[in-house]
Amino acid sequence: MSEWHVVWVPDPGRWGTLPEAGGLGVEDLPAAVERIGLMPGDPVFIAPDFTIDSDLLEFVLSKHFRFLARETKRNYATDIRILLTFLSSRGIDWRRASEQDLLNYRTWRCDAPQNPERISGSKWNREAAAFTRLFKWARVSPRPVDASRREDRAADSVSARVSWLTPRTWSLWSDVGLRGHGRDGVPTWGWDARTEARNTSFVQFTLSSGLRRQEGGSLLTFELPAQRLQHGRFQHGQLAGAVTRSKNGRTFYTSLDALGQVETYVQSERAWAVKRAQQMGRYERVAQMRLVTKVTRGRAPRVFWVDRDGVEGHQYLTHLGWRERQLLFIEGPEGPEPAWLWLTEQGLPMLPDRWNTVFTTANLRCEEALLTPAEREVGRNLRAAEVRGRTPYATPHSTRHSFALYMLIVLNQLMEARFGLTAADRRDFAMLFGDPWWLVKTLLGHADVETTKRHYLAPVAHLQLESILATAEADGPDREVENIDGVFARLAKESAGIQDIDVIVDRLPVAGR
């Protein structure tokens, strides 16, 4: 036996059935874990002999690991676990691993034909960063791998997670996957629509704003955009720095249509879930509750609250991370209710990573409706390209990718087709306001425009968008949507990775079109 395991510290109130007092040598397991210094979401490494590795526990508690984002902790711990198992299977203690040991591991992970699950260069670079952090903390010398060394990084590192769906393909995916429509464009018999409004409004909101899963998934009700742009169909809001990857707050924009769907969810499904939870006394059993008493406005808004013990507290809104936000409640018409925007059917905050399950379930529904039973029996990764092309597939991050692609095309159209800018005019416009790449970079919250080009839009950078847009008809406002669809259709045919209806299903009915 050489298999290592990782267990994760649960969030408060989500420990499930606990062992009897004294069963594991402790009277109160959550309290004992807290005394050690472990936080919710922290990993605990279990050796093959089912003992806890004390050195790895110290690593998790150290400054080298503690201040990483929760998702980064999960990714790094998963990567380290696989390395530990590899070394253990060869009788090598991880503290004594050599450069040759890591070279052998890299060869197996990336290049060995015998490995049926080889990884990409981008994935290896992430693993190398995790291992570097561990060996640097352990002061292993010489360091077996170092992500700062060029030879330890993959030369073929290209982002493979880019996933684009055109606007009409998102409509198809939402109708089939989230609204339960069949091939005929109407809801199937027996469709359960209990969370339909929540799921569809979240997708439209993130598609319209380009927010990441955690950014959009941890919004509070009083953070919804309320300021309308002058003469526009968009509203803008402020994103808290604590929920972003860069830890820097930024302004985001969303369409009135998407915001209207969110408000409909708040007044219908969400209101019902809150009322049901209040009737069943769920909020009275919440272990930690901070009842918001005031939210200041201005450039640096602050949230004031009082907890169950009557202790008052406050914090700048931009400094509230997603874990603290779950504790915030506001006084509603029938009593306290969560300030968290997206709620489960039980009326409790829906954690950001739970959206993965929503998207996975929607993908399976699309396969059920659009593929034959024989085609569904084959796993997605093993299906022929023709079969994969007959059903849309999306992840929470696909909304961000698709937003970026859509904005690039629209901005190019505005600068050329609508404004009729010459090459010289375009240079002047770019000097004053920035080119479309720079504007999309700003909307996405990237620090460097090259990140936008490299990770999101590089596969279509070789296309001459100017010539494509020049051939698109633009003979009036009534043709605007059709023209955009035509541009996307051409891009889907000439570029890899863009999912479009014409490629997926021929003349499949789409509700509302």
TrEMBL record:
The chain positions of domain Core-binding (CB) read 47-139
Q: Name one GO biological process term.
A: DNA recombination
| Annotated keywords | DNA recombination, DNA-binding
Q: Which Pfam families has this protein been placed in?
A: Phage_int_SAM_1 (PF02899)
**Which molecular function terms from Gene Ontology are attached?**
DNA binding
Decide whether keyword DNA-binding is in the record: yes
What InterPro entries is this protein classified in? CB, DNA_brk_join_enz, Integrase-like_cat_sf, Integrase_recombinase_N, Integrase_SAM-like_N
Q: Can you tell which superkingdom this protein's organism belongs to?
A: Bacteria
Q: State the protein's name.
A: Integrase
Q: Which source organism?
A: Streptomyces agglomeratus
